[in-house]
Amino acid sequence: MNALAHAASSGNATAADWLRFLRPIVAGVRNPPSEGDCKARAVALAAALPNVPAAWLAQTWRQAEAMRKFAFWPAVADFAEMFEPELRDARESADRRLRLAAPAPDFDGPPLRSAEEILAVKAKARALVAELTATRPEDRATSPVRPAPISDGAMLEHYRQLAARGNGPAAVRVAQIEERLGLDA
């Protein structure tokens, strides 16, 4: 079955549908084609855009849109560009429907663990951590980390040094700190 026969059987646009769609456009372009060229373009459109539904071409607003869009006799690529967003949406919608309708794949992975097996593995992990901690006490933290805040003056001096080397954000920060401390005078 060729593309044109398939389009006719699936509700998609045939060359005759495209020819009906093109008639008003022929009248609206600056370089209207001959009757033979118009029929050839309809056949080419049916072959190049086999997924365009015939119902889309029966909508007069689409013809009006094409007449406004095309000042010159459009190429097949121009029509493909015109219909592409809707064709892409239709493809994505169909893909979504197929994914939702498809049965869930069988799980061929490793067998699921029982609750007892999971508890046994957790116990082994705790035992290993305890053993490693007991054999290497130097790895344990002996004192908590204490915060070491930096004074406003030290922070200001640091940012001034950075600003002197051309660091723009540091210069902005110097101005902010000076303003906060009341040194901007």
Question: What can you tell me about this protein's structure?
Answer:
By secondary structure, the protein is an all-alpha fold. Among the domains are: 3-101, no CATH class; 152-181, no CATH class. It has helices at 3-9, 15-28, 35-48, 54-57, 60-69, 76-101, 115-135, 152-164, 168-181. It is flat and about 90 Å long. The protein starts with a helix and ends with a helix.
What's a quick, concise take on this entry?
The chain has helices spanning 3-9, 15-28, 35-48, 54-57, 60-69, 76-101, 115-135, 152-164, 168-181.
List segments where confidence is low: pLDDT < 50 over at least 5 consecutive residues. Answer: 1-9
Give the SSE order as H and E letters: HHHHHHHHH
Using the CA coordinates, give the radius of gyration: 36 Å
The computed structural class is mainly alpha
Tell me about the largest β-sheet.
Answer: none
Q: Helical amount among residues, as a percent range?
A: 55-70%
How would the global form be characterised?
Answer: flat
- Taken as a percent bin, the fraction of beta residues is under 5%
End-to-end separation in angstroms reads 87 Å
Total strands: the figure is 0
Q: Compute the average pLDDT.
A: 82
Assembly state (oligomeric): single chain
**Number of DSSP helical runs:** 9
